[in-house]
């Protein structure tokens, strides 16, 4: 579905990793762990074609990303929902408008109303839908970010520290939403430094744990 094949990348000439390979198989659930600064966000950005591999190949849904033009990348990106580390909302738009933004930008305004109501209730943000993003708590922001990532019904969800800055109960709630999405057939990749979150999954899902450290990606095993 998404494949990095012997990819090398560095920022400003400083190599972060080289010849790194990663496959997001359809329906898989994977965690990406590793110390701060190891390159987890960079790796995620390569997976959703926000960055281009400097060496090696990225394949998105069977297509070589380096051969895709802007529209081709945009088409592939529509199949990937991204939960960014810092949420990135437009502060003068309501929570509902922010969540619906990917649909409105794509000109699918008529779909927005129906999808939105269902999504707001799924993430438990119905009562907060008219508020502005700065009025939300950390956990509410993370849930709004997740709702926005899935409003286009993507095949793949890529979440960068989706449980950062929330308490244990809220992190469990967010994780259970991601597990639910995986049960619906979505491919899920979550970057987190929080090993307790991974351990808390127990047998809920067949998750694979990858560890990025010193430019090497290793499989840390299953949480089962
Ligand atoms: N746009 C950029 N320009 C220059 N350097 C960058 C850029 N983005 C990231 N870096 C550097 O690359 C390294 C990896 O950053 P990255 O954000 O990918 O790591 P991370 O594992 O996600 O870290 P964290 O867990 O702290 O979020 C860091 O040293 C960072 O400073």
TrEMBL record:
A GO molecular-function annotation: transmembrane transporter activity
Ranges for domain ABC transporter: 2-224
GO terms for biological process, alphabetical: cell division
Keywords associated with the record: ATP-binding, Cell cycle, Cell division, Nucleotide-binding
Keyword Nucleotide-binding in record: yes
InterPro entries according to UniProt: AAA+_ATPase (IPR003593), ABC_transporter-like_ATP-bd (IPR003439), ABC_transporter-like_CS (IPR017871), ABC_transpr_LolD-like (IPR015854), P-loop_NTPase (IPR027417)
SMART domains (alphabetical): AAA (SM00382)
Cellular component GO terms, alphabetical: plasma membrane
Domain of life where this protein originates: Bacteria
PANTHER family, alphabetized: CELL DIVISION ATP-BINDING PROTEIN FTSE (PTHR24220:SF470), IMPORT ATP-BINDING PROTEIN (PTHR24220)
Name used for this protein in its record: Cell division transport system ATP-binding protein
């Amino acid at each position: 579905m998404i494949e990095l094949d012997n990819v090398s990348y560095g920022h400003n000439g400083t190599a972060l990793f080289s010849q790194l390979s990663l496959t997001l198989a359809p329906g898989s659930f994977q965690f990406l762990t590793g110390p701060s600064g190891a390159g987890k966000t960079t790796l995620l950005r390569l997976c959703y074609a926000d960055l281009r591999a400097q060496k090696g190949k990225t394949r998105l849904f069977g297509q070589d990303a380096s051969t895709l033009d802007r529209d081709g990348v945009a088409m592939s990106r529509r199949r990937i929902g991204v939960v960014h580390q810092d949420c990135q909302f437009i502060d003068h738009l309501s929570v509902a408008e922010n969540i619906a933004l990917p649909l409105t930008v794509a000109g699918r305004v008529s779909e927005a109303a129906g999808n939105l109501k269902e999504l707001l209730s799924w993430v438990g943000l119905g009562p907060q839908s008219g508020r502005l993003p700065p009025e939300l708590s950390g956990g509410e922001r993370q849930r709004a970010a997740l709702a926005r990532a899935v409003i286009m019904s993507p095949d793949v969800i890529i979440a960068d520290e989706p449980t950062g800055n929330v308490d244990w109960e809220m992190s469990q709630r967010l994780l259970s939403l991601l597990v639910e999405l995986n049960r619906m057939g979505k491919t899920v990749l979550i970057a987190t430094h929080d090993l307790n979150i991974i351990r808390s999954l127990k047998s809920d899902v067949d998750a694979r744990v990858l560890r990025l450290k010193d430019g090497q990606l290793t499989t840390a095993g299953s949480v089962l």
